[in-house]
Structures are given as structure tokens and as C-alpha cells.
Amino acid sequence: MTLRGAERLRTELKKLKSEDRPNVIKAIAEARAHGDLSENAEYHAAREQQSFIEGRINDIEHRLSNAEIIDVTRLAANGRVVFGCTVQLEDQDGGAKVRYQLVGDDEADIKQGLLSVSSPIARALIGKSQGDVVDVTAPGGTRTYEIVVVQYV
């Protein structure tokens, strides 16, 4: 996991524990005050929300405790494509340039340029260097990219 991904999870965990959990506890208490719990939709909805929040807290805590956090700026990869680096690629078929950072599966968001390290493109790029041409077999067919820039930021 990248440093940025770990920080994002820590922020979400803090919000869940300090804001969301107390709010749902208040909602459960208010719903209980309305009487019969067997037919109280507000109570059941609040309990379901509490279950979701507790599950998410456990999931984040587990991920953070088992994660190996990589500080990309300290990598000495000698220009090779590795986990956490940012690459700029040029499509050899159309000339379009794209920029991706290779991140863990939990952090991936293609709209923000965060590419999962287990994706077909990332698997084809790992270990390659700037200037290399790479063929990527993806569900849409085979594409050819040139690695224009490799950065560790």
C-alpha cells in the first residue's frame, strides 16, 4: 500500500469512529424511544447502518495492521517500473499519452490515474524501463505502449 493510500484509510477510520459511530448510536437510542422495536423501521435501519459501520471499521483496521506501506520517494529502482511509481505511457496506435501510478488493489481508481498493480497493464509494465515498448493484452485486445517517463513521487 502506498503512503497516500494508508493515510486515506486512516482518515476514513477516524471519521467512522469519531462521527459516524456516535451518530448511529444516537439514532438507535431515538428509535428505541419510539416503542415497539419489532415494527420500528427506523430502529432496523439504524441497526443495519451500525452493522455496516462496524464492519467497515474492522476491515480498515485489518488492512492497516497487515499492510506493508511503501514510501515511493525512497525507492531505488534505477528507472524500472515498480509498485508505487508513476509512469507516462504513449499509445503506439493512436499516440495518446496517459499517466498512471501503480497502487494496491484497494487504492485503485482509474479516473484519478491510480492503476491496480494486478491489472493487465500494470503486470505488463512491472520490471520494464523508460523507453521500453510493451504489448498489453487486455479484454479489449492487444495494445502497444511506449514507456515515456518513470517517476518515484
Description:
- The chain is an alpha+beta fold.
- 41% of the residues lie in helices and 22% in strands.
- It contains three helices and five strands.
- A five-stranded mixed β-sheet has the order 3-2-1-5-4.
- Helix 1 (3-33) packs antiparallel against helix 2 (41-66).
- The longest helix has 31 residues, at 3-33.
Gyration radius from CA atoms, angstroms:
22 Å
N- to C-terminal distance: 14 Å
Going by CATH, the architecture of the largest domain would be Roll
Number of domains: 2
Strand order of the largest sheet: 3-2-1-5-4
Helix content: 40-55%
CATH class of the largest domain: Alpha Beta
Number of helices: 3
Beta-strand fraction estimate = 15-25%
Structural class: alpha+beta
CATH homologous superfamily label of the largest domain: Transcription elongation factor, GreA/GreB, C-terminal domain
The ordered string of helix (H) and strand (E) elements is HHEEEHEE
Summarize model confidence as the mean pLDDT: 89
**Quaternary status of these chains?**
single chain
CATH topology call of the largest domain: Chitinase A, domain 3
- Largest sheet composition: 5 strands, mixed
